[in-house]
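Weekly structure sync, notes
Attendees: PL (lead), two postdocs, one rotation student
Agenda item 3: pending single-chain targets
PL asked that the sequence for the first pending target be pasted directly into the notes so everyone works from the same version. It is reproduced below exactly as submitted, 357 residues in total.
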Amino acid sequence: MKHAFGHFIRLLAPEESQASTGPSSYGSVGEAVAELERRERERTQPARDAKAAKAEEAEQPEAEEAEEYEEEASSPAPEEADADDEDVATEEEAEQEPEEQEPSLEDVEYEGKSYKLPPELKNALLRQADYTRKTQEVAQERSILQGQRQEVAQYAQQLAQTQAVLAQFASSFIGEPPPLELAQADIQAYTLQKAMYEQRVQQFQALQGQGQQLTQQQQAMHMQAMQEFQQRELQTLVEKMPELATNEGYQKFATKAVEVGSKYGFAPQEIASITDHRMILALRDLGNLQAETAKRKEIAGDVRKKLANVPPKVAKPGPATNQTGRTERAAQAKQRFMKSARDDRALRRWAAETADE
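Predicted structure, written out during the meeting:
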């Protein structure tokens, strides 16, 4: 057996077996097996190393491709990155976009009650209140004139009654002259009665003359007071309306005053008889207010035509919340305009508020 096993070793390692002296060079079979295994490992080691190198080279591109794939997966595409940047910028702009401040409200007192209104509505309400106040003043002055006419009529009626009373008193005080028949029967009695009658007539005429003189004095004093009052009123009126100092300005205002007064039932004679400067100023303000109201209606009509011809605005793409906010602000701007005076200033403000919507 030993001879056979030694021959097998020589077949596996002829070089070393030739250098050896035969099977007797190994101490035992175990040593021979260990030596055989060592030599086998040394012989096959280059092949294993080459195979491992090839496997490593084959695995390296796959690892690199895996790393590149992971990098591509982790890093966003340029278009997606740009889109993300735009979304972030849009969100930041939306966050930074200041919200439209609510219009400040102001306290307004009207007919004994307090209200909180925007400045535009406050001005409109004050103009309406001023218009109402001036109209009431004109109506009040008209009532005063009517009362004065009634007083004059009552005074004339009282004067007629007083004259009737005086005539009756004169008839009872003076009496009748003595008849001519008495002169034929008793000339002395007739002469005495006639003298007494004439004396009573003279006394009555003296009293009547004193009354007329007192009345004339009172009329003169009244006329002087009226002239002084009219002079003061005219001076005050010219100070507040300097245009009346010229004849042209006076005629122009007189024509306008008659036109305004006629709308409230005043006759031209009634307008001409006004002496209180406050009524003149009320007529002026009322005329200006009527002109302003007519102009405002004309502007409102033009604005309605312009609004009817305005094409609807195309909504810009963007977040739904921003579009909704713009629509609400546009509706609020239009609502504020419709509640305003609808003049040029209100139209410009509406156009500015809706320009960027």
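Discussion points:
- The first strand starts at residue 106 and ends at 110.
- The beta strands are 106-110, 113-117.
Action: rotation student to compare against the earlier draft before next sync.
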